[in-house]
Amino acid sequence: MAGLSLMGVLLLSGCGNTGKSAVAAASSTSVSETSNEAGKGTKVSQPAENVDAQVAEASLPQPGEAISASLAWKSRMELAYATQFAVDTYEDADGMQYEAVSVADGSRFLLIPEGGKVPEDLPDSGGDAGMTVGIIGLGLIGGSLAKAYRRDPSVTVLGWDTDRSITEFAQIAQAIHAPLTEERLGELDLLLLATYPEAVVEHMERLAPKIQPHTMVIDCAGTKEKVCQKVFPLAEEYGFPFLGGHPMAGTHFSGFKYSRDDLFDGAPMVLVPPTFDDIRLLDRAKKLLEPVGFGRVSITTADKHDQRIAFTSQMAHVISNAYIKSPTAREHDGFSAGSYKDLTRVAWLNPSMWAELFLENKKNLLFELDTLIGNLNQYKQALEDEDFPTLCRLLDEGRRIKEEVDGK
After folding, report:
1. Closest Cα to residue 179, out of 168, 187, 189?
2. Neighbouring-strand partners of residue 101
3. Is 386 exposed, middle or buried (0-12, 13-18, 19+ CB in 10 A)?
4. Which of 34, 75, 317, 343 is surrounded by the most beta carbons within 10 Å?
5. H/E element holding 196?
6. Helix (H) or strand (E) holding 207
7. Strands of the 8-12 sheet, one edge to the other
8. pLDDT tens, position by position, 301-360
9. Residue 87's closest CA among 172, 7, 14?
10. In order along the chain (408 residues), what is the average pLDDT of each group of 10 residues?
């Protein structure tokens, strides 16, 4: 994560055909560099020159947020430069319009027309004094979490991804308010890590000394045992609360572009706490997760989680992926319906992600595979022997178990 300097107000003059203007910028660039960015981002015909700058601490709010008694955002957003800038407009009580440009690198510029003045007492950009959530990893899961939290105007969402362009796109798409930097970790009420298990551990080993005691940390990786073994001691050493987590929703697609704000509506969320007698910890976790829209929260241990996930999720992906390898698959068109679609949907997976999850949970997955292969061999033997009674018995056993576990 790159550093982020304090927000400041830069008073600029000679900005092309726009007349005198003031620019509030969050940037680690110099004044001259900031001036050039302002020239690019505000549709000015040429960059400002001979800039006379005054600096004062300030920051920009988000659309829809009141910034003073006489100044409030007009809830309007348009893309000025599709991949680099986004422009917001707000106006004061006298009808004077102001423009704010959000640059993809996290910088924000406040443009004040001639005759206007720099607003005072601007609050920090984000929600209305609610919680602040940080999300590491902005793929399908992290992106959907960000969009879910953004539905609540009281929540400020900061995000970061290893691919900087994804972080930039998430900000322009309004999935996050601003990039998450190490300097802003202290602002967080909740930190969510939506990455692979190994990456969760790497992030926590680096960030743990910088996380504040008031920040709750929840990982969202697909396996829990190794993550919890590594991170529980770190959380205890540095004095912040950590829970393993697994939001039980997804699609066969991956990546931020497939994320959506309702992915977790009504879905289960699994939590793995360090102990089971801390009711306040679990209650706080549920409240922090409430804006996401989970239907229920289940509490379990790391080993029980991984045992069950091997059966409910990982095995389904192995079976689907292996089943589609039949040479007959290329000839199914016109001969397939719901059964084929149901069984093959998750064959369309992210190979590197699922390979890592399978290896992380090797013991439990091998148990499920051995169990399945043993059962399949019984069906195979009954077919080879043309043993009608045995085949009927096997099929009826499966039907009855399905009825028992999932109802009619």
Report:
1. 168
2. 87, 109
3. exposed
4. 34
5. none
6. helix 197-207
7. 21-25, 8-12, 55-57
8. 999 999 999 999 999 999 999 999 999 988 888 777 888 888 888 888 889 888 989 999
9. 172
10. 29 27 30 29 28 31 41 32 43 58 46 50 46 96 96 94 92 92 95 96 96 96 94 97 93 87 94 89 93 93 94 94 92 82 87 90 95 96 96 95 85
What secondary structure does DSSP assign to 225-237, as a single string? HHHHHHHHHHHHH
Task: Locate 391 and state its tokens.
Answer: 């085949």
Q: Give dist(CA 271, CA 304) in Å, integer.
A: 11
Contact indicator for 68, 121 with CB cutoff of 8 Å:
yes
Residue 370 to residues 81, 312, 362, 373, 398: CA-CA distances in angstroms? Answer: 55, 15, 12, 5, 17
In whole angstroms, what is the distance from residue 217 CA to residue 109 CA?
Answer: 32
Residue type, 248: M
Cβ pair 101, 111 in contact under 8 A? yes
Q: What phi-psi label fits residue 8: left (phi over 0), alpha (psi between -120 and 50 degrees) or beta?
A: beta
In a 3-state reduction of DSSP, which class is residue 262?
Answer: coil
Cα separation of 188 and 156, whole Å? 9
Token pair listed for 4 = 């982020």
pTM of the model: 0.64
Alpha carbon separation from 137 to 198, 277, 355 (Å, rounded): 13, 31, 18
- Report residue 306 as tokens: 């991984």
Q: What is the dihedral of CA 160, 161, 164, 170, to 10 degrees?
A: -70
**Please, which residues bridge with residue 81 across strands?**
85
Instruction: Kindly state the tokens that stand for 350.
Output: 């992210």
* 280: exposed, middle or buried (Cβ count in 10 Å: 0-12, 13-18, 19+): exposed
Token pair listed for 264: 């977790």
